[in-house]
Amino acid sequence: MSTDKQHYPQVSWMERFKQVLDILQLPYYVVAGLFSDANKGRSWRRSASDSVMRFVSSRGWSIGMFGIKAGATSAIYETWTRKNGLEVLTDEIGEGAKLHWIGSRRYDRVLLYFHGGGLCFPVDADNQLGFLLALQRELQQSTEGVGFVFLEHSFTPQFSFPTQLRQANAALIHLLTNGVSPSRLLICGDSSGANLACQLFSHVLHPLPKISPAPPLGTPFLGAVFISPWISFTPPSSGQKDLLAPQFFEFMAAQLLPGIEDAERPYVEPSIAGDAWWEGLGSVVTRILATAGEVECQHDNIVRFVDGPVRKQVPHTTLVVEKNGVHEEMLFAFGAGEGGQSEEYWALVKWTSDAFNTAK
User: Source organism's superkingdom (predicted)?
Assistant: First the structure.
């Protein structure tokens, strides 16, 4: 199960040749993107950043062509941490997984983060870690401080379901064993990280026999934040302005779905689970904040899920739709050096601060 033994498929010379041809086109694509309708109203830096993502996600590359290496998340975390003058703090939690702390290790109030990337890519330093550090610093000013920690999990397709759920459950066991109270634990995830959070909540409600049971909670989690949650594998019917091509969501689903039994499908695709599946969610988590980009592919799926079964079970649910926002709008703003400027980001900061200030 160790991530040290993870290896991506070999890339054929034809795939490498195609990749070279694609990359040669990238500069022209980025320049054209500066004047495209999809980037209307954005700065040149943000337009360039979004254009790169649109280009890469629409090329039809195989998983091996992305060149992900074993231990990629650890390497990214350690480089980023030292660059920002922070201490490298990592907990080995078993199951081939790790928890990486941002700032001080503390167990009185904790935000546990599951990063996005389709469960097949490592954490992104600029977008995800930059966002987490900014949020942590804001909470330092408005609360008594919060410990931030994120999970390093194994990647699909080499490590199939329920590997990532098993690792998320190990993270929860580790934190609770070290004294974290569920009522002071906020679980946050972006895209597939939000999917993984939903998997964990499903495991609490419907224990999956293949893995260890979730630890007894006693009290519900303080809250959950879903940033552009990836909750449906149905090909999007809209989202031409999104920075992830619709077919890229199909690509990520193709890495995750092989080998999953029909009875297990609700764990990985929350939108199809049905209202009955989510009964009791209010006893698992006290409050939920979800965000969706106005023009992202998953917008309609997110709205239906959040305003449907989630809100029915957790009345203290807030949905923030980011105007003209793409997938993970506020995170990609950090990657372009423009993080922390939107109203939606500050709404998330306030919501999170209020949650921790009510923690008991």
Answer: Eukaryota
